[in-house]
Amino acid sequence: MNFSRHCDLCENQITSLENGLTCNLTNKKPDFDNTCSKITLDKRFQEKLEIANLELEIKRRNKKSTHLTFYSNIIIGFSLIIGGYLFSSWTIYSLFLWTVKIGIIASGFTFLGVAYSKLKRFRKKYKKAEWEKSKIDEVLKKYGIEYFTIFDFKEKIHGTQEVIVNLEFKNWTIKQTTNTYKFDY
């Protein structure tokens, strides 16, 4: 069993290089079957849950613009490759024109590479955000805690975005939390 997923959310977690992961209440390594009876889900849990959900929501919101950038770079790349191939096919005797033609084709391949790398980077970050959220959700499911998230994205000012994250809980001592986060694009 992966105790660290439970303990990462708990306020009683202690980590050190000597002992590794230990519980502040028992001063021993975690040792429980399915759930910990002494788990204290409070500020650390709330912050990790809010940030994991916020990161995933931001990735979801950026999905369309990432795909738009991908497709526009693909179109530009193929246009440059085809245009470079067709460029001056009737007067190709000049070394300068050959250099221009190869330069246009090379810039087309550069656009294709940029498109692929941006899409790959986005997918990697999106999967990481989904995985982080699913780790927390898996632990909460074992404790019977359900939640719903509401995001309020405020107007972006000078590149800084303010987001109000509202969590509503079922089967937990706290019924609702609201926090504000600011981040730069």
Note down, in words, how this protein is organized:
There is one protein chain. This protein has 185 residues and is of the alpha+beta class. The chain contains three helices and five strands, in the order H-E-E-H-H-E-E-E. It has helices at 3-9, 43-86, 95-142; strands at residues 13-16, 20-23, 146-153, 160-170, 176-184. The strands form two sheets. It has a three-stranded antiparallel β-sheet, with helices on one face. Strand 1 (13-16) and strand 2 (20-23) form a beta hairpin. Helix 2 (43-86) runs antiparallel to helix 3 (95-142). The protein is elongated and about 85 Å long. 12% of the residues are buried. The mean pLDDT is 86.
Which descriptors would you attach to this protein?
185 residues, alpha+beta, three-stranded antiparallel β-sheet, 3 helices, 5 strands
Mean pLDDT across all amino acids: 86
Euclidean distance between termini CA atoms: 38 Å
How many strands appear in the DSSP assignment?
Answer: 5
Largest sheet: 3 strands, antiparallel
What's the SSE pattern? HEEHHEEE
Arrangement of strands in the largest sheet: 3-4-5
Shape: elongated
Spans where pLDDT lies below 50 across 5 or more residues = none
By DSSP (H or I, 4+ residues per run), the number of helices equals 3
Strand portion, in percent?
15-25%
